[in-house]
Amino acid sequence: MSTVDPGMESMLETFIHETDTMLEQLDEILLESERARSLSEENINDIFRITHTIKGSAAMMEFDGISNLSHAIEDVFYVLREAPDKLEIVFDSLFDLILESSDFLKEEIGKLQGEADYQEKYPTILIDKLHDQANFLKGNTDTIVLSETESNVDTEVEDDENTYRIRVFFDDGCQMENMRAFMLLTQLQHYCDLLESIPSHPENDSEYSAQIIKNGFVVICKPTNSLEEVLKTIEGVLNIKTYEVLENSSKKEAIVEEKSKDEKSSVVSVEENEAAAKGTVTGKPVTVKTGGVKQSLISVNQGKLDYLMDLVGELVTAESMVIRNPDLNGLKLDNLTKSIRELRKLTDELQDIVMSIRMVPLQSTFHKMDRIVRDMSKKLGKKAELVTEGGDTEVDKTINDTIVDPLMHMIRNSMDHAIESAEERKAAGKPEVGRISLTAKNVGGEIHIKVGDDGYGMDPQKLLSKAKKNGLLTKPESEYTEKEALHLIMLPGFSTNTEVTEFSGRGVGMDVVRKNIEQVGGSISISSTKGKGTTFTIKIPLTLAIMDGMNISVGDTIFTIPITSIRQSFKVTSPDQIIENTNGTEMIMLRGECYPVFRLHNVFGLETELTDITEGIMIQVESSNISACIFADELLGEYQVVVKSFPMFFNQYNLKEKGFSGCSILGDGSISLILDINNFLANQ
Amino acid sequence: MNENHATELSAIEELNGRYLLFNCSDMLYGVPLVLVLEIIQTKNITYLPGVAPYIKGIINLRGKILPVLDIRLKFGIEERPYDDKTCIIVSEIRDMQVGLIVDSVSEVVTVDSENLAAPPNTKEMSAWYIDSVTNLEDRIVLNIDFEKFLKDDLDVIKVQ
């Protein structure tokens, strides 16, 4: 089947989610093992379990390519499990091949996710390669005999006291009976000491479906605790029409229970311990460890979370609409104030918990970087290791998704341009293996992510001359400080490497990185020491949706400045404090330092009667590298505002770059414009 | 589900052939009623710096932020101070809600398809968004296709 049946959509979502998670795990295991240059038995089993699960669920979703590829990987590890000592022979080629396959799977999953009409690609070459690999391994081993397609329908299970035979019938026309039977087995294994079935391996052949429809699916089991527990589990499985317990070998019908189940959209997850289920294939009795840890996680559609977030946002707005209701002005309402305080506490708490739901650890993003370093060091012949720290730091899902690409780009850059070859490193007296560090830290309301390397480092002088060549300098070369020179690399049209390599230099450079990061309200700065290495520091806010801001008015327009950007606000007492340049720009001296003054009404062309600098209010703001004073009419107070983006209609105007990060609806229904101080100052 | 769909369809059919008429600089324009979401008063428009002059700003319509355009300025004719009759027609164009400021709205008329005439076949660009012309007893109505009218603005929008 090449297109997706719309009825399967919710199952598809679960499939994508599960497979995605498992592929990430697979990569993690592979990289870890590769570094250790060995595969522990546990790891082999894990890989086995992962590929087996993917195979099973993909087959259920009828994605042949994914299913068969996983099957092929599984075959290889099947051989390896039997003869772990053969691993050394094929180590490198094997890992490359498996990682390549994992990439293919990820790509397919990505396509499933993003494309409405998914067309399946069949990885013939990969599967062939894997088969070759498996055969090669097999040829090298004489101890094992691989019998993949057993069809021993009659299984020998001792018929002692506690063994039960249960015949299960599935709903008419529920399709893929063999896979459902297999899933049933998987679920049951947690509750049974011994588990067999007729047919014995329903997942191997869809031909069994017909047999199951006709004769039912017979489960032979020896319950760990009680038969009731097993029956309860069977009841809980989807699409089961009826089941009956055939008591012991006498096959006397004991209980006949009928049960019609509403089809729920929830998908039975085939997660844990499938490797063990596979273990039964070899005919060995298997003891299943359930581990006793009950999973208390549920996966929720992100759309619902976004909606919840919106609702909480509306709630916060409505709350301040009530609290700051003009009808209450001038009244002394002690009880109301008390109640309001209580309400505030609750909404604050609600907001916190909703935010925390959306938080995901950076770990998985970091693992992706691991993979890049590995691939690139192989291809470029450089030796490097990635050291990560603070992977458990949590950020908003949206932010996490946005920074993956920039981080990837930066790591690639470091590998490609910064880390020297092993010989060069030796000559420079550095350790042969380059070191790229990736750390995340929670600092106040921000997350600081640092990407560092111990490579060449950047030469400000070189950067300057390069920028000059590309016509990017805006002031005389000598006036650039070292920091400013380093920041030149983030200008559009500046690429430090003229050659296009496979990994970087494809026309997208640090300017795109900066843009992506600024999109989520973050900033990036660079420090570098020639010969010692470079460190990029990314600062991003924890969450996006709700922030503390200072509302100020200019004429009829209300602006919100993020509290984090404000250093202080003050009144100018005499016009003498203002220094006026001949070209009309104004400046002010504060504690011995000189800051430019921007009058908002001039900058944005707003009408206001208040132009006397001593009557309005001055707000000192700072971005990552500039500090300045903003002149406005008056301060309206500190508010919690819900950030709303501008309608799509304004996309063409690049409001973000003009200094507006969004807008917000205030308590009285009017709109305030949220100033993005970084961009605002960069524009002046 | 099917029933819902059917009622929805019949509701749309009911609106077919009905036009909302509005005035702009002494001329009567029509817009298919299906496209009109609602008509609201012009107040509390928040000025947005740095956008085209005919975009008057943004408004808050029950928690949604909409852009508001002055139809006079978009036509290229002189602005007029807003009064009681000035109002905003909220319309949905390409899945986006947009408010259009008009001098006043007059009425809703049902037009038979035989009363619709083809637009004037001029090469002049200003008339290319006129979809059809309706001949009511004593008046001529120019029916605007909002999507064509705002083509310049809509085409440059990259869906992010």
Q: How does this structure look, described?
A:
The complex is a heterodimer of chains A (684) and B (160). Chain A is of the alpha+beta class. Chain A has 5 domains: 6-140, Four Helix Bundle (Hemerythrin (Met), subunit A) (Up-down Bundle); 164-282, Histidine kinase CheA-like, P2 response regulator-binding domain (Alpha-Beta Plaits, 2-Layer Sandwich); 304-358, Helix Hairpins (Orthogonal Bundle), CATH 1.10.287; 360-541, Histidine kinase-like ATPase, C-terminal domain (Heat Shock Protein 90), CATH 3.30.565; 546-683, CheA-289, Domain 4 (OB fold (Dihydrolipoamide Acetyltransferase, E2P)). Chain A contains 20 helices and 23 strands. In chain A, a hairpin with a 2-residue loop joins strand 9 and strand 10 (446-453). In chain A, helix 6 packs across helix 7. The longest helix of chain A has 28 residues, at 9-36. Chain A is flat and about 100 Å long. With 160 residues, chain B is an alpha+beta fold. Chain B has a single domain, classed as OB fold (Dihydrolipoamide Acetyltransferase, E2P), CATH 2.40.50.180. Chain B is 18% helix and 43% strand. Chain B is built from 4 helices and 11 strands, in the order αβββββαββββββαα. Chain B has helices spanning 2-15, 71-75, 146-149, 151-155; strands spanning 18-24, 27-32, 36-41, 55-61, 64-70, 87-93, 96-102, 104-110, 116-117, 130-136, 139-144. Chain B has a 6-stranded mixed beta sheet. In chain B, strands 3-6-7-5-4 form a 5-stranded mixed beta sheet. The longest helix of chain B has 14 residues, at 2-15. The two termini of chain B are 32 Å apart.
List the helices and strands and how they pair.
The complex is a heterodimer of chains A (684) and B (160).
Chain A: H1 9-36, H2 41-61, H3 64-82, H4 87-114, H5 124-140, E1 164-170, H6 177-188, E2 192-198, H7 208-215, E3 217-223, H8 227-236, E4 240-247, E5 252-258, H9 274-279, H10 302-323, H11 334-357, E6 359-361, H12 363-380, E7 384-389, E8 394-396, H13 397-418, H14 422-427, E9 434-443, E10 446-453, H15 460-469, H16 482-487, H17 510-519, E11 523-529, E12 533-541, E13 546-554, E14 557-562, E15 566-570, E16 578-580, E17 586-590, E18 593-599, H18 600-603, E19 617-622, E20 627-632, E21 634-642, H19 655-658, E22 660-665, E23 671-675, H20 677-683
Parallel strand pairs in A: 7-9, 14-23, 18-20
Antiparallel strand pairs in A: 1-3, 1-4, 2-3, 4-5, 6-8, 9-10, 10-12, 11-12, 13-14, 13-21, 15-19, 16-17, 17-18, 19-20, 22-23
Helix pairs in contact in A: 1-2, 1-4, 1-12, 2-3, 3-4, 3-5, 4-5, 6-7, 10-11, 12-13, 13-17
Chain B: H1 2-15, E1 18-24, E2 27-32, E3 36-41, E4 55-61, E5 64-70, H2 71-75, E6 87-93, E7 96-102, E8 104-110, E9 116-117, E10 130-136, E11 139-144, H3 146-149, H4 151-155
Parallel strand pairs in B: 2-11, 5-7
Antiparallel strand pairs in B: 1-2, 1-8, 3-6, 4-5, 6-7, 9-10, 10-11
